[in-house]
Amino acid sequence: MFRQAKALLRLRGQQSAWRLKSTAAERALQYRAGQKIHGFTVREVAPVPDLFLTAVKLTHDRTGAQYLHAARDDSNNLFSVLLRTTPRDSTGVPHILEHTVLCGSEKFPCRDPFFKMLNRSLSTFMNAFTASDYTMYPFSTQNGKDFQNLLSVYLDAVFFPCLREQDFWQEGWRLENEEATDPSSPLVFKGVVFNEMKGVFSDNERVYAQHLQNKLYPDHTYSVVSGGEPLVIPDLTWEQLKQFHATHYHPSNARFFTYGDLPLEQHLQQIEEEALSRFQRIEPNTDVPPQPHWSSPREDHVTCSPDALAPDPARQNSLCVSYLLGDITDTFEGFTVSLLSELMISGPNSPFYKALIEPKIGSDFSSVVGYDGSTKEASFSIGLQGMAEEDTERVKQIISQTMDDIIQNGFEEERIEALLHKIEIQMKHQSTNFGLSLASYIASAWNHDGDPVQLLQISDSVAKFKQALVENPRFLQDKVKHYFKENTHRLTLSMSPDEAYLEKQAQAEEEKLQRKIQALSDSDKKEIYEKGLELLAAQSETQDVSCLPALKMCDIEPKISPTAVQMGSAGGVPVQFCEQPTNGLVYFRAMCSLNTLPEDLRLYVPLFCSVITRMGSGDLDYRQQAQQMELRTGGMSVSPQVVPDSTHLDMYEQGVLLFSSCLERNLPHMFQLWSDIFNSPHFDDEERLRVLVMRAAQELANGISYSGHMYAMTRAGRHLTPAGDLQETFGGMKQVKFMKRIAEMSDLTQVIRTLPRIKKHLLNPDNMRCAVNTTPQKLSDTSAQLESFIRDVAGNRKQRKPVRANISERPLDPLHESGPSRKLICEQNFQPCQMKTFFQMPFPVNFVSEIIRTVPFAHEDYASLSVLARMMTAKYLHGEIREKGGAYGGGARMGGGGLFTFYSYRDPNSVQTLSAFRKGVDWAKSGPFTQQDIDEAKLSIFSAVDAPVAPADKGSGRFLSGITDEMKQSHRERLFAVTHKNLVGVAERYLSVGQRTCGVSILGPENEAIKKDPSWIVK
Ligand SMILES: [Zn+2]
């Protein structure tokens, strides 16, 4: 995986605070600076009360490896090791290394131990990332034995990998006959990273971000592409890869981080014994020097491919100004400028939103915007995308003028208050991946020798910030003057589409290929062919994975841990109460049925959801409304929902989900904001609506190259169930095209007339149920507040007739059949039909999906199909689609709506992948798998089923889909019971050709074979 880390202030707390005293954090306070433990010396012990943790900083005596432990009463323990990787060319060496070290190591020489461990563990997270200047390997798990197993595998992979030549070919790049078994077929480039990066750079936003970084920091490691430039990747040799490993993957260049309630000593001992004891200290020389400052600003221009789905084809230019800021190891300065950035760009009250977004010069901010602390020196960028070329000078002028205005006028006090409130909520909100958030939060600054403990002391920074404002009322304005107005190290980068972009890229690749081929002798070609066959043989070999540690079925809890909920009501509306350790926050949900909405309006529902909380309501215009939401809540949102029934494939619930959170003290304010939205939402501001529509359409268009598999899957499922059809309406290509059409309308009056009609049907307490998660102490107060909210909105209560006659009711509380119910649509006469759809897209890679209609969640075969999907992915499809096919990812999954789904992600192949899916079914039917394979598939399902759930989300599955703990428990028992015979049986009964209806969809580049085939619909 490759990503550009964004150092946002995004800290989420986790499920502690239930007990008043955090025992793991308390124990850790007993360490003393200077204490020696297993080859390490403790340097600092610091309590961080805001985050309920104790930080222990250590160094490894012999190698100088750095170590940070965050002791916290959280069972979702995390480990991560970070290496500073500072490449000097764009061959993608750190990225290819990240992939190849995971292909086998000294103690675990089997192919791909990393992917194999996914099925032998109960990990809650396993991954690896290549950033611009570091590579990080994190995992988390709630099981102590599993932690030790994974730690062994990770340490061995990182410090003692095999780095075989074959691994380099498979993961990096290679020349190979197009058909590996046919020496007369043409030679082509293959390799997982090679294809992955082609996919990454099919995303124009990524192209822009990459160029911007390269050009703003032109003198060292940030001037190259750490993930790999597709045309430069083939310059990398295996020798260079091994060399890079030797110099960068060394403990003297490493930072270890552990988090959670497991004892520190045990981690230190294992890390010392299994890895560090075999090293001596080196001087890694991986420092990134400061970027020399420019004496005058620069301008540059780049091109990209045109976007067929962009909301306005005539306006596809981007422009932004990017400023080089200070060193990120200065914690307080980084904190200050990141807050400053929020004040400048975030929300409709910010100066840049007013100056750039509202005049509608572009469709949205440029893809890179705001503060970025992922490089040694931070940057700030501001600009637009989706603009016309002739507006270039105007945009530059506005940016400069807005900076002047800020220096002149500063910020309203209330906005600063709202921002500090947001930080308070972020620190209190309990999430499930707190360890991982911390690891990412400290990574960049620590990587450049900043103090990670200081970064965690957020309250100190907040206090210092408030003090600075008191001492100097112009504190922020002075910063703007210094960092922006007077800063000569700034780059103005524009990007415009080039019709011939893809063609030029393809041509450049072809030329590179031909140069490589021309240098080959006949014997070289023969060798390439033979190596291709060797690789194929190695990929097809059955692996002996017995060297890898594994959990056993008996390590899995036989029972689910139940979540208690109480059913009640407020003003006649059913309410589910769930008591949780929410750390002073209240979470509110409401599901509003869509059953009475005329069907022709359903396409508008996502648009309605995205604007209903942003156009103003009651006495508040949209700016005041946004301000109140920031001051009083942790956010308010509305989203469309399609909830398939658990017992019947042709039944589903449709609605919109309201969600918000707030600090306990703000409960009345939060409900007041909802009341205003119910009673008097504003819809008539066409200008405001247009801004929201443009941004939404742009966001959808940008998301396709990243989430193409989701769109392929949604389309493939469209004709298989009624719920699948509605999913396509709400979130598929149909919705993307609809929003594009709306964004292109010159007159939005018709939309403005439609929104209030939708509101009448949706925001109706008669069709509503609510859920609240809060602490036991706050329950009765919340209930009373909710009661008064329902009273306030009672005027919207109206009995309306459902559009469809066939409504089926399900009791909310299974023990009270006669109580309140969910109302589901039941389309008994639904006829699933076979359909193959191809969407031609401006990408060099494909997203392929095939879906088969099977059985709903409560059916006895559902568990077998779930296990089968996991097993086919691990034992067959991964090898065929990723290893042999060169796609970034691919597999099968079983969905709650009864759809058995095959998919591939960033795939160089299209119809060949469809036949790999089919061969996977034949493989499953012939049953060549062992009990161990079945157990592994079950383990990987349980690690998902038992993933931690945040206090905010407990009981929400039950609230939405009516799936009770009892139903979960019987599903669990079925999973345990799945046998070899069951798996072969379901493969035969459901997945064989002609057994059940299936749908197919591909998003990808122009495809001659599909065009000629009349069985495809080409869009
Ligand atoms: Zn990757």
Task: Tell me what the structure shows.
The strands form five sheets. Strands 1, 2, 3, 4, 5, 6, 7, 8 and 11 form a nine-stranded mixed β-sheet that branches. Strands 18, 19, 20, 21, 22, 23, 24 and 25 form an eight-stranded mixed β-sheet that branches. This protein is of the alpha+beta class. Helix content is 42%, strand content 20%. Mean pLDDT is 93; it is low at 1-20. The chain has 34 helices and 31 strands. Helix 2 packs across helix 8 (238-248) and helix 4 packs parallel to helix 9. Bound molecules: zinc ion. Residues 1-2, 95, 99, 193, 196 line the site of zinc ion (ZN).
- What shape does the CA trace take? globular
> What structural class is derived from the secondary structure elements?
alpha+beta
Bound molecules: zinc ion
Look at the structure and give the mean pLDDT. Answer: 93
Q: Count the strands? A: 31
Secondary structure: elements and pairs:
Blueprint: H1 23-28, E1 36-37, E2 40-48, E3 53-60, E4 66-72, E5 77-84, H2 93-101, H3 113-117, E6 123-126, E7 129-130, E8 134-141, H4 144-159, H5 165-171, E9 174-177, E10 187-190, H6 192-200, H7 204-216, H8 238-248, E11 254-260, H9 264-274, E12 298-304, E13 317-327, H10 331-345, H11 351-357, E14 364-365, E15 370-372, E16 377-387, H12 392-409, H13 413-428, H14 434-447, H15 452-456, H16 458-471, H17 475-485, E17 490-497, H18 501-518, H19 522-540, E18 566-570, E19 573-579, E20 585-593, H20 605-612, H21 622-632, E21 636-644, E22 651-663, H22 667-679, H23 686-716, H24 722-731, H25 733-744, H26 749-762, E23 768-774, H27 779-792, E24 807-811, E25 821-826, E26 835-840, E27 846-853, H28 862-884, E28 889-894, E29 899-907, H29 911-926, H30 931-945, H31 956-961, H32 965-977, H33 980-991, E30 998-1004, H34 1008-1012, E31 1017-1018
Helix pairs in contact: 2-8, 4-9, 11-12, 12-17, 13-21, 21-22, 22-27, 23-25, 24-25, 28-29, 28-30, 28-32, 28-33, 29-33
Zinc ion binds next to α2 and α6.
